[in-house]
Specification:
This protein has 215 residues and is of the alpha+beta class. The protein has one domain: Pnp Oxidase, Chain A. It has five helices and ten strands. Strands 1, 2, 3, 4, 5, 6, 7, 8, 9 and 10 form a ten-stranded mixed sheet that branches. It catalyses: pyridoxamine 5'-phosphate + O2 + H2O = pyridoxal 5'-phosphate + H2O2 + NH4(+); pyridoxine 5'-phosphate + O2 = pyridoxal 5'-phosphate + H2O2. Its EC number is 1.4.3.5.
Length: 215
C-alpha cells in the first residue's frame, strides 16, 4: 500500500497552495483553469535536451495527472520517432511549465521520464478521433515533408489500410514525467509573487520538502 505523503516545511501554506499532495493540487489548479482558459488549458511547454546537451522546447498537451497513489506523474503522448521522442530516449529527463493567464498562475516541474506503452496508451489512442488516429499513422513526425499534398495522400492511404479502425502504432505512445521538483507559482502585486517548490529525492518517494522561494 502506498504511504500517504510526508511533508517537511518551515512555513504553513493556505489558500490556493494548501494541501499535502502536489499531484492533487496540480489537478485542482488544472480543473479550475478548464473553467476559465479559452483554449487548451492542458497545454504545457516541454523542455528536453539532445545527446549533446542542446536544449529544445515545444508545446504538448498534458493528458493525465496520475495520483500519488500511483507514484505521481504527468502524462503526455507523442510519436516516439519525433525529435522529443528521440531526445527522451537518449536522455530520459524533462522539464515543463504550464501557464494560465486567466488564473495568473503556473506550474513548473522537472524529473525523470519513462514510456507508457501498455493498456493505458492503447485506451487513450482509441479515444482519439478517427482522423487523429489515421494522422498518427500518416505522419513521420519531425522529419522533412515535401508538401502538404504528400501528407494528405499518406493519410488517405492509412485510412484505406485500416478501414476505420486503426490500432495504436508501435511508434506512438506515452511519456510519463515523474517529477523530482514541482513549483507552484501565483502572481502577486508589485511582482511580489508567491512561489512554493516541492522537492523529493526519489521519483517514487512520497516524502516532500516544501520551500517558499523569493519571487
Amino acid at each position: 500500500m502506498t504511504q500517504p505523503p510526508r511533508i517537511i516545511e518551515t512555513e504553513p501554506r493556505g489558500g490556493i497552495f494548501a494541501g499535502d499532495d502536489p499531484f492533487a493540487l496540480a489537478a485542482a489548479w488544472l480543473a479550475e483553469a478548464e473553467r476559465t482558459e479559452p483554449n487548451d488549458p492542458n497545454a504545457m511547454a516541454l523542455a528536453t535536451a539532445d545527446p549533446d546537451g542542446m536544449p529544445d522546447v515545444r508545446m504538448v498537451l498534458l493528458k493525465e495527472i496520475e495520483p500519488a497513489a500511483e507514484g505521481g506523474a504527468f502524462l503526455f503522448y507523442t510519436n516516439y520517432g519525433s525529435a522529443k521522442g528521440r531526445q527522451l530516449a537518449a536522455n530520459p529527463r524533462a522539464a515543463f511549465v504550464i501557464h494560465w493567464k486567466t488564473l495568473r498562475r503556473q506550474i513548473r516541474a522537472r524529473g525523470l521520464v519513462e514510456r507508457e506503452e501498455g493498456p493505458k496508451a492503447d485506451a487513450y489512442f482509441a479515444s482519439r478521433s478517427l482522423a487523429s488516429r489515421v494522422g498518427a499513422w500518416a505522419s513521420r513526425q519531425s522529419e522533412p515533408l515535401s508538401s502538404r499534398a504528400h501528407l494528405m495522400a499518406e493519410a488517405a492511404k492509412a485510412g484505406a489500410r485500416f478501414m476505420g479502425a486503426p490500432p495504436r502504432p508501435p511508434f506512438w505512445g506515452g511519456f510519463r514525467i515523474r517529477p523530482l521538483q514541482i513549483e507552484f507559482w501565483a502572481d502577486g502585486a508589485h511582482r511580489l509573487h508567491d512561489r512554493f517548490r516541492w522537492t523529493r529525492q526519489d521519483p517514487l518517494s512520497q516524502e516532500w520538502t516544501v520551500t517558499r522561494l523569493n519571487p
